[in-house]
């Protein structure tokens, strides 16, 4: 069943006098509980497609159908609410808040998502997620004392703590070595299965492809 | 979660530096404000302590009180009409004490009034600063323009004019010394500028203070320093938060991407500004009030709690404006910027 559908999405940028079309009518359905990978050469439009799907930038035309709504019809505040409650994000860099501990990063996300959990329930949920990402012992650590792999696992924990429906990951293993990259992809794979999340991941690393259900190849702004 | 507080706790040094600067600037502002007010009292407490109303001097005096002369007819007419009104004169002079030491004073005499000391013939009431010079009640003082002697009847608290202590004397003694019959000025309490008299120019209390030589120049210079410091503190907040915001653009972008409201980011910045300003002001207000209590006797320093609180409110407002102006860039940060940037 398709939970999110990208329909004929186009994106153009003005480069001086010339209008450059980055996405030329992309159609892509995302199935519930599956990991879909967007692959392609640099400049193929995969990251642009991911950021448009995630509501981080508007499409020039087309539709983004999610939960019975077309995201392109919504205003900024409505999109923000969807990002806070229904979407999770993992980026190339972990982008953790430098002055919050691992536990506080997750607590912040729960607050942003306006979850109805009580304080003890929030603590319980944080412990559960930290156990999944194997960071129970680093609960009180600040980002500055974490390794690159640990930071990215915290970023993943932050992206899923509020139980989003869709996880968007933009090159989540780009800054990690091969071993750590595999660990992170295994984690994303496992979480998608156990929590029933739908994942759209952008990667250029072919070694990551065994961990995904669908591979979508892009070239020059179209799906091939 | 108190995200603003968490940041301050983690980056103590950064916020301590800003807090210290705000503390020093606000302390300096309070001290200069205390000096401005002290000098103002030293220059014109005689007038400042009078109730709000209107002052009158003759038009031909061209706003110079000691050239003014109000004829007795006009004076009587006004005093009969306005019960609280008082006619008075001010003249610089000096008195010699028992040891023939000369003390500069400003002689003040008035018609019977609750606002001025009523002194009998041959008596004199002095500002308390002359007590500190060794003059006591019962001492006799002389003046080369006065045929008789003055007996010191008492002292009054902080009554100065043009940086000189006031000496209240009887009108007859005054007339003998300065060989004048007419008073220079009339003061009508609670009157407004609609009340006018032929041949007399009217002044509000504030306008009359400005006729005192050097008063407005002195106050303008000091007040300019005070407001300059207030503006500097506002700019300091703006610059500090601008620098911090520039450093945190990536972070703001990512927080926006995960769904944090822009208003939450503004609240975070305002909280930090409020905490820093509050702590800095508590310290500087306490220290300036302590200085107010222990300032050396010769130093004209007067800092009321009302003035301090007013200035503290101005600091809050200016800090808020400074931080908000610098924070406008937060609104412009797009979530996408964070993704395109490196680690925050």
Describe this structure in words.
The complex is a heterodimer of chains A (224) and B (344). Chain A is an alpha/beta fold and 224 residues long. Chain A has one domain (2-223): 3-Layer(aba) Sandwich (Rossmann fold), CATH 3.40.50.300. Helices cover 33% and strands 29% of the residues of chain A. Chain A has 6 helices and 10 strands; from the N terminus they run E-E-E-H-E-E-H-E-H-H-H-E-H-E-E-E. Chain A has helices at 46-53, 76-85, 102-112, 119-132, 148-160, 178-195; strands spanning 2-15, 18-31, 35-40, 61-66, 69-70, 87-90, 166-170, 198-202, 214-219, 222-223. In chain A, the strands form 2 sheets. A 6-stranded mixed sheet of chain A has the order 6-7-8-3-9-10. In chain A, strands 2-1-4-5 form a 4-stranded antiparallel sheet, covered by helices on one side. In chain A, strand 4 and strand 5 form a beta hairpin. In chain A, helix 3 (102-112) packs across helix 4, helix 3 packs parallel to helix 5 and helix 5 (148-160) packs parallel to helix 6 (178-195). The longest helix of chain A has 18 residues, at 178-195. Chain A is globular, with a radius of gyration of 17 Å. The two termini of chain A are 22 Å apart. With 344 residues, chain B is an alpha+beta fold. Chain B has 2 domains: 3-43 and 216-340, no CATH class; 47-207, no CATH class. Chain B is 51% helix and 17% strand. Chain B has 10 helices and 10 strands. Chain B has helices at 3-10, 12-48, 72-81, 171-178, 205-209, 215-247, 249-257, 262-294, 305-332, 335-340, and strands spanning 53-58, 86-96, 102-110, 123-127, 140-141, 150-156, 160-161, 164-169, 185-189, 200-204. In chain B, strands 1, 2, 3, 4, 5, 6, 7, 8, 9 and 10 form a 10-stranded mixed sheet that branches. In chain B, strand 7 (160-161) and strand 8 (164-169) form a beta hairpin. In chain B, helix 2 (12-48) packs antiparallel against helix 6 (215-247) and helix 8 runs antiparallel to helix 9. Chain B is elongated and about 90 Å long. The mean pLDDT of chain B is 89. The chains are: A alpha/beta (224), B alpha+beta (344). Chains A and B meet through helix 2 and helix 3 of A and helix 1, helix 7 and helix 10 of B.
């Amino acid at each position: 069943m398709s939970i999110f559908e990208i329909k004929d999405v186009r994106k153009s940028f003005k480069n001086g006098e010339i209008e450059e079309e980055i996405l030329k009518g992309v159609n892509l359905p995302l199935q519930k509980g599956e990991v879909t990978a967007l692959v392609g050469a640099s400049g193929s439009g995969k990251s642009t497609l991911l950021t448009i799907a995630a509501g981080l930038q508007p499409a020039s035309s087309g539709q983004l159908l999610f939960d019975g709504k077309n995201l392109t019809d919504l205003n900024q505040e409505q999109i923000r609410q969807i990002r806070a409650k229904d979407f999770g994000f993992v980026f190339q860099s972990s982008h953790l808040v430098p002055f919050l501990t691992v536990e506080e990063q997750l607590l912040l996300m729960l607050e942003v998502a306006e979850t109805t959990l009580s304080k003890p329930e929030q603590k319980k949920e944080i412990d559960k997620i930290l156990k999944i990402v194997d960071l129970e012992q680093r609960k009180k650590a600040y980002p500055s004392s974490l390794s690159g792999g640990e930071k990215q696992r915290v970023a993943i924990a932050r992206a899923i703590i509020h139980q989003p429906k869709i996880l968007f990951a933009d090159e989540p293993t780009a800054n990690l070595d091969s071993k750590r990259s595999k660990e992170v992809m295994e984690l994303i794979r496992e979480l998608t299965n156990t929590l029933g999340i739908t994942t759209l991941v952008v990667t250029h690393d072919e070694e990551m492809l065994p961990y995904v259900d669908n591979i979508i190849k892009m070239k020059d702004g179209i799906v091939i | 979660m108190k995200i603003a507080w968490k940041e301050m706790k983690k980056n103590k040094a950064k916020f301590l530096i800003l807090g210290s600067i705000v503390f020093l600037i606000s302390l300096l502002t309070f001290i200069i404000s205390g000096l401005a007010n002290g000098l103002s009292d030293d220059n014109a407490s005689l007038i400042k302590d009078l109730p709000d109303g209107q002052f009158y001097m003759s038009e031909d005096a061209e706003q110079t009180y000691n050239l003014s002369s109000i004829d007795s007819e006009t004076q009587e007419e006004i005093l009969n009409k306005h019960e609280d009104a008082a006619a008075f004169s001010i003249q610089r002079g000096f008195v010699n004490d028992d040891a023939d030491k000369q003390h500069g004073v400003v002689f003040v005499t008035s018609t019977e009034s609750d606002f001025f000391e009523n002194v009998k013939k041959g008596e004199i009431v002095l500002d308390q600063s002359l007590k500190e010079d060794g003059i006591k009640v019962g001492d006799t003082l002389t003046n080369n323009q006065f045929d008789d002697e003055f007996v010191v009847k008492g002292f009054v608290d902080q009554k100065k004019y043009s940086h000189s202590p006031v000496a209240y004397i009887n009108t007859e003694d005054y007339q003998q010394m300065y060989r004048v019959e007419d008073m220079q000025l009339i003061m009508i309490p609670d009157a407004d500028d609609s009340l006018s008299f032929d041949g007399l120019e009217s002044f509000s209390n504030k306008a009359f203070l400005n006729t005192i030589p050097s008063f407005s120049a002195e106050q303008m210079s000091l007040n300019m320093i005070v407001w300059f410091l207030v503006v500097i503190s506002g700019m300091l907040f703006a610059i500090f938060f601008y620098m911090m915001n520039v450093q945190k653009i990536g972070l703001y972008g990512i927080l926006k991407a995960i769904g944090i409201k822009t208003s939450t980011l503004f609240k975070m910045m305002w909280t930090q500004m409020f905490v820093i300003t509050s702590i800095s002001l508590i310290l500087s207000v306490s220290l300036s009030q302590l200085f107010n209590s222990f300032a050396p006797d010769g130093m004209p320093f007067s800092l009321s709690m009302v003035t301090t609180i007013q200035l503290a409110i101005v600091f809050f407002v200016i800090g808020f404006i400074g931080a908000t102006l610098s924070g406008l860039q937060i609104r412009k940060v797009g979530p996408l910027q964070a993704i395109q940037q490196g680690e925050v």
